[in-house]
Each structure stands twice: as C-alpha cells, then as structure tokens.
Amino acid sequence: MRVGGNFQEKNLPIFLPVSKPAAPAVRAWLHGMIRRPIILTLTAWLACLAPTLAAGDGGHHSLPFNAPVLVDLGFFKITNSMVAMWLVAAVIIFFAQLATRRISLVPTGLQNLFETVVEGLQDFLATIMGEKLAKETFWFFGSIFIFIMCANWMGLFPMVGTVGHYLVDASGHHHSWVPWLRGANADLNMTLGLALVFFAMWLYWSVKANGPGGFLAHIFLYQGEGKGLMKAMLIVIFFLVGFLEIVSIMIRPLTLTFRLYGNIYAGESLLELMLFMGGKWFGWLAALPFYFLELMVGAIQALVFTLLTAVFTSLMCHHEEGDHGH
Amino acid sequence: MEPFLFLAETGAASGGLAEVAENLQKQFGIHGQLLFSQIVGFLVFAFLLKKFAFGPIQQMLEQRKLRIAEGEEKLKRIEKQLADSEATTAAAIAKANEEAVRLINEAKEGAHAFTEQKSQEAIAHAQQILAKAEAAAQAERAQISAELKREFGRLVAATTAQVTGKVLTADDQKRINEEALAKVEG
Fold first, then answer.
1. B25 interfacial to chain A (CB closer than 8 Å)
2. Are A280 and A55 a contacting pair, CB within 8 Å?
3. ipTM of the complex
4. What are A88-144's pLDDT values in tens digits?
5. Do A143 and B45 touch (CB under 8 A)?
6. A-chain residues within 8 Å CB-CB of B45?
7. Could you tell me the residue range of the domain that residue A19 belongs to?
8. What is the pTM of this model?
9. How large is the average pLDDT for residues B102-111?
C-alpha cells in the first residue's frame, strides 16, 4: 500500500531501535500491521466474538417477527414500529419545512440538499418513466424512497430496539421486554401498507393512462403486427399469457412487502445477534462492520422498492413518443 | 418462534391458502387497524412532504428552468441584436467614411479652385500694383528729370552769365540750356 510505504520510510525508525536483535522481527510484524490496518480490526473483531461463541447462545432472545404493541386502547393500537414511523416522518417533514420555508431562486444550505435529492430522484425516475409521468407521480415515488431510506437508517440509531420496558404480569414477574422503537420497515404492516398504497396508485394511474378498456387490452390483447395463422396464434397466446400477467400483478405487492420486510428484519436481527455475541463490552465492535453493511442495505432496499414500483408503473403507463398503441 | 420452524409450519399447513394467510397474520402480527394506521400515516407523510418539499422545490426547479431558458433566449436575442447593431454600425461607419471622403474630395477640389482663383486675383492685383508703381516711378522720374533739367539750365545760364558778364536773353538761356542738356544726355 502506498500510504503504508510512506509511513514506514519516514516514521518507523523513531519508534523502533534497530540495534536490538529482535527488532527486525518486531519491525516486520509492525510493518504488516501498519500496512494492513484492516487485519488489526478484523482480529480484534474476531477476538471479541470468540468468548461469546465459546459460551453458546444461552439467554439470547431473537427479534420477534411482529412489532410489539406499546399502547392498546382496544380499538386503536400503537406499535413501536408505528412510533418509529411517526418519528421518521416528523423529522423529514421538519427538515423539509425548514428547507423550503424561505425558498429562493439561488439555493443555499438545506434547500440545496433537498433540491439535489428531489432533482436527482426526479431525473432518475424520468429515465425510467419519462419526464411527464415522473413529474406526475413524483409525490409517491419521492416519498417512498425518502421514507424507506430514512426509516431503514433510523433503525441503526442507538436506542432503536435497545431502549424499552419490561411487561410485568399479574404475579409481578417480568413477562417480556418491549423496545420502544423498532425499524419501521421491520414490521410487515408497514411494508404491506406501502405495497398496497402502491398497488392502489398503480391501478389508478394505469386506468387513467389507458382507460378501463385499454387497461385490460394492455394485459390480454396482442398489439403487434402479423398475418394469418401466426397472428391468430399470437392472439390466443397473448390472451392466455394475460392470465399469467394478472397473477404476476397480484403477486407484486406481496413480493414488494416481503422483500423489504425480510431485508430489514434480517438486518436488525443480524445487528442484534452481533451485539449479543460481542458480549457486554465489545458488542459494539462485533456489530460495527454490519452497521456499514446495513447502511448500504437501507439505501439499496429503498432504491429497489422505488425502482421496481417505478418500472411496474412505467410498463403500464409510459408510452414512448409516437407509440400510441400498447 | 424461530424463523425456520415457522417456515416448516407454514409449509405443512399449505393445505389451505386461508391457513397460510392466518399463519402469516398470526406470525407477523398483521392487523387490520395497524395496517390501516400505517397506510394513513404514510399517506399523510406523502401529502405533507408534497406540500412542504416536493411542491415548492419542483415549482422552484421549474421556475429556475424557465429563468434559464428565458436567459438563454435573451442572450441569443442580445447576441443577435449585437450582431445587427455591429452590422448597422459598420454600415454607418462605411457610409460616413464614404461621405467624409466625398466631402474631403469636394473640399479639396473647392479649396484648389478657390486657391487658384485667389492666386489669379492676387497675381492680377500684384500686376496692377506693379503697373501703377511703374507708372508712378516713371512719372516721378520724368518730374525729377524735368526739375533737374530746369535746375541744370538755370545753373548753366547763371554760370554762363557770371563767366561772360553779360545779361542773357531768354533765347540765349534756352539755347544754352538745350546745348548743355544735349551734351549731358549725349
């Protein structure tokens, strides 16, 4: 490594007396450590995992699939993921309001940041859906992307999943521990809700763009050119494929729901496991590499959800210029 | 329940879709009111984000795009105007140059004619002056000559009278004068 080489040449003699007989070995070892700091980090990380691995997993409780209810008023329940969602939404809305309160033609500070995000996202969506459709539907796709990404990243904050209270049963025993916050997307209600909102909007946009007849024609009818027997066969095939398309469309919300939920739930479980495996004092170190991984996963999953929903919408609603058929 | 156990259970219960759905509902805590709350929560969030962020920012981006387009349009117009103006100025300068050259030529020609005229006038005037001066000089010379002759005659007559001691008549004086003058002029 270039940096290590420079360090070795310039600074090492100050710390290592060359007159001692053991110096070359020590120096070689140190050189290696200086050159490859990642090895040092990994060694420390594995070292802190070792005692826990040896001790087994007794006492560890896994993250529940469902979000625990914090407040139950009978007709209205509040889960910890719902609180997290409100919190994320409130923070985003607060900063959005702050950014656009004194909006000006020459952007500064937060306005710059928000404009960059909005413009970047809109341009990105325009490459998939075309400029007109991207503008019309941006309120949804922009909200989805920003919300999912921020909610995923919020799940990585300290106190999320680690601060809570014990439920005490009638006999006074601690029944179970309930964290006050949980990653909003680690709750199937949330991801299913997002997918259902998308499905409803997709249906609306599709019917709006094609008309009810056009919507069905888009799915069942053969729109290409052809003659004679070949055309007749294609018409039959396309009609039958239309039913498969219907099944595919119906499955989309489910795949969207479980993909997002699964990734975020798995990420939270992984972090929790690593924190546990690292023990009382080194849990943070064991989990540290996975925090970087989860940062990436959080952004990638937001992008995947947005990209897929945008592509589904584009397939149904976006027609290239001059293409008036389907 | 552990995840794998749940999956096995779900697989075993695959006899009915309703059972799977029920298992999913129980296992993942899907609840109508929670689902509805999350949906409403997200829609409210999307609405507020559109109102406070996307709306104003999209409007601003559109406005900025329009401004830039207008600016570009203005720039093009200004460039065109500048080119037109430069062409007009160049044409005006060329025309002015032509006019100036014509005027200079005319002035030169006028000046030349005027100079010629004035020179001729001056020459004529000088000639007149010379002629007058010559005439005056001749007249003066004639007058002086006459006076000299008269004086010379008087002196010759006076000298002759003193030398001879006799009184000279007018004829004598006239004859002596003429002889003396003839000798002086001869």
1. no
2. no
3. 0.77
4. 999 999 999 999 888 888 888 889 999 999 999 999 999 999 999 999 999 999 999
5. yes
6. 89, 92-93, 143, 147
7. 2-55
8. 0.68
9. 91
Q: Tell me whether residues B1 and A187 touch, CB distance under 8 A.
A: no
Please count the structural domains in chain A: 2
- Residue A324 within any structural domain of the chain: no
- Write out the two tokens for B169: 């008549």
Cα distance from B82 to chain A (closest Cα, Å)? 28
Residue A278 lies in a domain: yes
Does a structural domain hold residue A322? no
Does A41 share its domain with A184?
A: no
Task: Let me know how long chain B is.
Answer: 186
Domain boundary residue among A55, A83, A99?
Answer: A55
DSSP A166: E
For B52, the token pair is: 């406070």
Q: Do A24 and A89 lie in a common domain?
A: no
pLDDT in tens, B8-66: 455 444 557 788 878 877 888 888 889 999 999 999 999 999 998 899 999 999 999 99
Inform me whether the C-beta atom of residue B125 falls under 8 Å from chain A C-beta atoms. no
CB B138: neighbour CB atoms within 10 A?
A: 10
Do A50 and A93 have their domain in common? no
**Dist. CA A69–CA A150, nearest whole Å:** 22
> For residue A303, which of A160, A169, A120 has the smallest C-alpha distance?
A120
